[in-house]
């Protein structure tokens, strides 16, 4: 019915690599691919193996579960979208901490009603956007902090600080294509 590839981490795997929980749910333990470094597996390519793989009105939903965390929706496949490259929404490596004994990251796949999925379709995008906004804000704050002075209980920064930061940000992004990826894009 479906297959997956973890870019730079695996060969194509069919659904037999997953443990089938019931007729509509499958689970794959990521530790077989990356051990405790599950956060290094950033994407999964999921594909349907044949046009008639799913019944009408159904979709193949994909979820990621960090160790000891909840399942997070990544995306879905259906007849008009038979494959997708999905970002895995792991927590930041620094925030994740050590992997508790006996737990590991997992990928879950389930067959669900297509009509039920659109409400969840933007959940992953909103989380990525929030993470990017936070990291850009941290970058700006750190830049401003290096130029600020103190006046009583106020921070004082030069008037052109935003222009200087934005120019530096644009220059770095144009010189290093990987720079923006560090912000979660």
From TrEMBL:
Molecular functions per Gene Ontology: nuclear import signal receptor activity
Originating species: Dioscorea zingiberensis
GO cellular component, one term: nucleus
Domain Hikeshi-like N-terminal: start-end pairs: 17-122
One biological process term in Gene Ontology: protein import into nucleus
Xref: InterPro entries: Hikeshi-like_C (IPR048364), Hikeshi-like_N (IPR008493), OPI10 (IPR031318)
Name of the protein described by the UniProt record: Hikeshi-like domain-containing protein
Family of this protein: Belongs to the OPI10 family.
PANTHER family per UniProt: HIKESHI FAMILY MEMBER, PROTEIN HIKESHI
């Amino acid at each position: 019915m479906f297959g997956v590839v973890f870019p730079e981490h695996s060969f194509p795997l069919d659904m037999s690599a997953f443990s089938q929980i019931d007729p509509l749910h499958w689970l794959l333990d990521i530790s077989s691919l990356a051990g405790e470094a599950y956060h290094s597996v950033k994407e999964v390519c999921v594909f349907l193996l044949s046009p008639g793989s799913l019944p009408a009105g159904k979709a193949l939903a994909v979820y990621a579960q960090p160790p000891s965390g909840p399942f997070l929706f990544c995306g879905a496949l259906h007849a008009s979208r038979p494959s997708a490259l999905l970002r895995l929404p792991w927590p930041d490596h620094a925030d994740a901490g050590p992997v508790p004994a006996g737990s590991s990251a997992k990928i879950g796949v389930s067959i669900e009603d297509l009509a039920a999925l659109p409400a969840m379709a933007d959940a992953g995008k909103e989380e990525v956007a929030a993470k990017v906004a936070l990291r850009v804000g941290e970058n700006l704050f750190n830049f401003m902090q290096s130029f600020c002075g103190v006046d009583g209980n106020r921070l004082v920064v030069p008037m052109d600080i935003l222009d200087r930061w934005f120019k530096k940000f644009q220059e770095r992004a144009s010189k290093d294509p990987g720079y923006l990826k560090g912000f979660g894009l």
